[in-house]
Every structure is written in structure tokens, then in C-alpha cells.
Amino acid sequence: MTSSMSNSGPPPIFNPKNTNPLSLIAINTTSQLPIKLTATNFPSWRAHFTSLLIGHDLRGFVDGSLPCPPRATDSSSSTNTPSMSPAYLHWYHQDKLLLSAIFSSVSENVMPLIAIADTSREARDTLARLFTNRSRTRVMQLKETLTLLHGGSRSVSEFLQSIKATADELALINTPLTNDDFTLLCP
């Protein structure tokens, strides 16, 4: 029994990078994303979607740090005609899978806003542009919510959870509350 264990060699080393650079990764948004993008939850959706992309090492497709490679190779030696680059084909197919994941992770009301996007980056940029302006309004709404919060019949724990949830949502919009904000805004 010990001889079989000693012959097996060292344990495999975890390599976070995809060992087959030409394999494609499909994202199942139904099981991997807990929320669909709506008109009011962009910061939360963005945080979930970005984490998923980072986990699969695919963020470069949507943030532009992994640009599309040239479409054609120089030429085939026998025909002197350009052929499709394997790197381009892989990038194109992976990007279409990501675009499909974005499409399936948004609500029916949001889908028409990005339906004409050709790439995952274009869809992401369109969503960011559309919802960033709404986020400024959302910051004001959330801060107003804090000023209007009252304990009422809720327990202290539930009341504090409401404050924390609102503060967390503000942090997701890159507007974390300072101690002074808590003092001024929270009852």
C-alpha cells in the first residue's frame, strides 16, 4: 500500500491559468449569477459578474486588456490566400460566449438596450454608461433612505441590518459612507 503511494510522485500543482489555451469557457448564468440586472441593481450585478469573470480568468475580454487578435494569418503556403487565425477564432468564440452570458444575465427590460452589441466589451461599456448616471441618482436616494430610517417595530438587529445594507450598496457604487456621514445621515 505504501509502495503505490510512493510511486505516485508529488501531488499535482494547482495552475490557475487554463492549461489548454484553446478551450472555451461557457458561463451558466442561471446557476452562477444569483441576480439578473434590472434598472435598480447595477452595482450588485456588476460586482457578481466581475467576480465571475475574474474567477474564470476572462475579465480581459470585457475590459479591453485582452484585445481581439488579427483576423487572418499571413497566407497559406499552398494557396496564397489568407486563412483565419486560430487565436482570432478562439477569441471570437469565447467573446460570443461571454456576450451570451451578459445577454442572459439581464432582465427583459434591459436586454433591448444592449441587443445590438457585437462584443462583450461593447455590451459591458453600454451598460456601464447607462447605469453610471443612474448610480448618481441612486446615491442620493440611498442617502435619503438613511435619513428616513426609523426603528419602528423592528428589532435593533433588523434596524442595524437595514443601515448596513444601505451602506453596503453605497460602497458598491464607489461611495462608501464616512463616519461623519453615519453621524449626519443615520437617525
Automatic annotation (TrEMBL):
Transmembrane segments: none annotated. It comes from the Eukaryota. InterPro entries: Copia-like_N. Signal peptide: none annotated. Residues 33-69 form the Retrotransposon Copia-like N-terminal domain. It holds the Pfam family Retrotran_gag_3. This is Retrotransposon Copia-like N-terminal domain-containing protein.
